[in-house]
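job 3f2a | input accepted
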Amino acid sequence: MVSTGVEDGVGLTALMVAAARAIETHRPDTLATDAYAEHFVRAATTSAGWPLHPDDVPHGDANPLWGRLARYFGLRTRVLDDHLLDTTRTGIRQVVILGAGLDSRAYRLDWPPGVAVYELDQPGVLAFKQNVLADLQATPRTTRTTIPVDLRDNWAASLLATDFTPALPTAWLAEGLLLYLSSTEETDLITTVDHLSPPGSTLAYEVKPGHELPSVRLNPLYAYTSHHLGLDLLALFNQDHRPDSTTTLTQAGWTTTAHTPFDYTRLHGRGPTPEPNDPLARNQWVFATKAG
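job 3f2a | predicted structure (292 res):
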């Protein structure tokens, strides 16, 4: 079989999130719309038979993966969409998406004029995405540059080999990426972002401090995902002690705020709410701005 970059491991999680966005798109109370998401899922043999519409989800919102977690991904998409649009509407013209996966923000968001989006991810993932978008004859709504690179390697050199300008403020996004990096890799990434960021730059990322308690590891989400997708999320999450990246940023002159997903559930009036032994309880979304 020819590798597509999305048939297993972290690449398969990109398909899982795309399916979640497709389900969210078709919800009557949708938080985020992504018309491309279902096409990625349909294009991969690995995801054949996955639900793409709320009506196709067994047990509806009670489904631990395609119900509650899919709604979580829909909420995360909405929050980070809003963040990027807010930052670019206030003047930032460079957006760098680290671990872009099957994200299609360059195609679906209403960007201000002059914004350039840079997508970094594994070569196989970006090639798969580009093939699907080409088949759809999709056209990005702003300037888009893809950079195939392993984010555990010297990705900064690959970014700097494009027309990216480190002297200009940048909106950086690491959506879900840090969960899969080692402690050292996370610190290296945060430090590199800081070095490439002049004052006025922003950074948004997701973290999951600490480790899952044994009771949380027994949450039905993990067994369901393993059984139905062949995906062991707990094995994919890096088990290193997490670095305090917010303190690292603060010491480098950034201001940071952290929120739980449930903060945004309350803000938007829909989304996941806390439950016992909750896999989402430790998730935090961090937003940072580099001071002048």
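job 3f2a | The CA atoms of residues 117 and 144 lie 5 Å apart.
job 3f2a | closed
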